[in-house]
């Protein structure tokens, strides 16, 4: 059958004409066909279609574009979108791919609105809005704080005023004043200085309106109503040309080079919202605790189910007009970060999203417990990762879990951590209740990554009792146990319990601060000073457990010179753990002047050690651990301790 091939053309990719059929050699034609193996799939012998090849080429070009704009490896700097300028001129196909990459991730809506030619940057005084109440910081002495840059479409009265005040300035080619044309031209947006995530917003526009900043930059003329602002068909078509390329809106990111923010005027925002959702194809949404989209005006952002569209959506509500418009539909969202409302009404709108795989609840001050005898509806069927942060009270985390779904969640990952200190508790009841709720609400066979936090409690609690419900999850590979500086939980016990319950562990992180003994000096507990950190003897369970372990991070304390270092463990010939390569972090632990003894013991537990360090310690401590690492890697002759051939001086496992 004649075949077709893909060729590049100035306008994009096209299918070449079918090639002429070649004569078939008689000898080849008479050769019997090779038998198809029984295990082969039909896909392996099916010629790729033109659509498949086009998709493959798209992926290749997109990856090339991403590599071009990515910052150098190990350098956390800004991307370089300007490197794609030449690619946008190659062909329409390559230009579309380059634009997809440039617009894929955004941290603000400002670059998108700057693509509208009529949009200008205006200076207005700083206004803060809280639950509909307005505060004007008119007494602020710092003018840089008082003024903010706002994107808006000036009315004709404002344009006339700007022309009069800037009569001495040159007029651009279109005959507009300096306040006009701050939007990005089509050629500029497609080629050179495209206003994309990664380029400073301040540098996208060349000039601001030089008019004196007013309280809110509103026109006071009777015939001017900002709520009647409309976008033309051409403006909206241009706007959606870039909006449909945005896949990730990450309003949590704060790049260091973008110190000053550019806000979007409320009237301009709703002029676009009246046309339809601004982000129709977004797949990931990350909003910080105020759910601030850098909009200048009296508004609030939340999740609702608009009656006109019938699907759950991220909506923007205007306090003045009580109008709510969907910012983006949520039916295709796979990753979402947002703060929950105190009543947890947001769960009803997220529960039935068909593609939601990752959900992160951010900080919230309080969550109300509602006495409801009815169990929550079943849902969150696609959810695989649930993360909760910034909620220090374990009772609130338990309430969230209890109201998510009546059927066990098939999570691969659960995480609860707090950036600040955990709430102080009189006992460990809140932690035990939360862990019991986890066991009841999660499918025990699915969980692989687990991060939990305990309350800050002074009472001693055996790790076996505290973690017994967590031990019901047999397939945990990554464990992160955060002990909240509690003196009542023994780190060695925690290490023993989790390595026994989770033999498939690959990474272990135990967080605690062993140097905060001043907080608990009044306790009549002689062992409180030793429980908060691990010991060398506490590493014994790892010698013959967790064969796939690759990372161990534990607050370790090395005995002082007056105390004995444990004797090295007796090696077992040819056991599977001899080749296990592990990276160890001891947090603030210090080997002191006992490098040789410490190295001998560490080598008996981790014979194939990759590295050992103290990430929270100073350079001197790090250098001593570097010596320990070198001695372990060079074998027994470096440690000065005989580990082979005799059990003398060694502890049998």
UniProtKB/TrEMBL annotation:
It comes from the Eukaryota. Residues 213-222 have a biased composition (Acidic residues). Residues 164-184, 200-222 are annotated as: Disordered. This is Uncharacterized protein. It comes from Schizophyllum amplum.
């Amino acid at each position: 059958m004649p075949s077709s091939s893909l060729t590049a053309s100035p306008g994009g990719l096209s299918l070449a004409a079918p090639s002429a059929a070649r004569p078939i050699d008689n000898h080849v034609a008479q050769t019997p066909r090779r038998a198809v193996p029984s295990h082969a799939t039909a896909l392996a012998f099916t010629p790729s279609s033109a659509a498949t090849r086009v998709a493959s080429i798209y992926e290749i070009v997109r990856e090339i574009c991403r590599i071009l704009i990515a910052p150098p490896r190990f350098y956390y700097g800004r991307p370089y979108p300007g490197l794609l300028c030449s690619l946008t001129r190659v062909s329409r196909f390559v230009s579309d791919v380059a634009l997809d990459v440039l617009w894929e991730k955004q941290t603000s809506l400002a670059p998108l609105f700057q693509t509208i030619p009529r949009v200008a940057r205006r200076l207005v005084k700083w206004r803060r809005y809280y639950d509909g109440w307005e505060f004007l910081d008119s007494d602020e002495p710092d003018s840089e704080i008082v003024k903010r840059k706002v994107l808006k479409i000036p009315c004709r009265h404002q344009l006339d005023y700007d022309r009069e005040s800037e009569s001495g300035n040159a007029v651009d080619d279109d005959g507009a004043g300096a306040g006009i044309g701050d939007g990005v031209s089509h050629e500029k947006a497609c080629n050179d200085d495209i206003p994309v995530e990664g380029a400073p917003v301040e540098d996208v526009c060349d000039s601001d309106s030089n008019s004196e900043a007013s309280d809110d930059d509103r026109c006071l003329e009777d015939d001017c109503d900002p709520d009647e602002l409309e976008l033309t068909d051409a403006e909206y078509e241009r706007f959606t040309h870039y909006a449909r390329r945005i896949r990730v809106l990450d309003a949590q990111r704060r790049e260091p080079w973008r110190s000053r923010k550019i806000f979007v005027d409320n009237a301009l925002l709703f002029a676009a919202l009246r046309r339809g959702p601004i982000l129709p194809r977004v797949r990931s949404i990350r909003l910080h605790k105020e759910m601030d989209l850098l909009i200048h005006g009296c508004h609030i952002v939340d999740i609702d189910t608009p009656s006109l569209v019938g699907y759950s959506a991220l909506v923007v509500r205007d306090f003045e007009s009580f109008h709510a418009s969907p910012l983006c539909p949520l039916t295709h969202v796979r990753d979402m970060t947002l703060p929950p409302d105190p009543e947890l009404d947001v769960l009803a709108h997220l529960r039935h999203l068909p593609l939601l795989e990752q959900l992160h609840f951010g900080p919230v001050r309080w969550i109300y417990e509602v006495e409801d005898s009815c169990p929550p509806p079943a849902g969150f069927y696609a959810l695989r990762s649930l993360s909760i942060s910034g909620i220090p009270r374990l009772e609130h985390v338990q309430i969230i879990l209890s109201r998510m779904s009546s059927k066990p969640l098939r999570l691969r990952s659960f995480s609860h951590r707090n950036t600040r200190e955990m709430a102080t508790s009189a006992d460990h009841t809140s932690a035990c209740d939360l862990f019991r709720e986890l066991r009841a609400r999660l499918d025990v066979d699915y969980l692989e990554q687990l991060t939990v936090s305990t309350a800050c409690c002074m009472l001693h609690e055996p790790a076996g009792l505290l973690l017994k419900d967590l031990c019901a999850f047999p397939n945990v590979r990554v464990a992160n146990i955060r002990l909240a500086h509690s003196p009542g939980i023994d780190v060695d016990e925690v290490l023993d319990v989790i390595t026994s319950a989770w033999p498939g562990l690959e990474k272990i992180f135990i967080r605690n601060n062993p140097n905060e003994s001043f907080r608990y000096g009044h306790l009549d507990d002689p062992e409180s000073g030793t429980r908060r950190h691990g010991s060398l003897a506490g590493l014994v369970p790892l010698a013959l457990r967790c064969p796939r372990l690759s990372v161990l991070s534990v607050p370790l304390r090395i005995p002082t010179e007056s105390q004995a270092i444990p004797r090295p463990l007796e090696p077992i010939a040819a056991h599977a753990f001899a080749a296990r390569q592990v990276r160890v972090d001891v947090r603030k632990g210090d080997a002191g002047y006992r490098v040789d003894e410490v190295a001998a013991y560490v080598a008996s537990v981790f014979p194939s050690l990759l590295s050992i360090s103290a990430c929270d310690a100073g350079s001197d401590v790090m250098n001593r651990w570097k010596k320990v690492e070198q001695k372990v890697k060079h074998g027994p002759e470096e440690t000065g301790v005989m580990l082979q051939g005799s059990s003398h001086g060694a502890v049998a496992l």
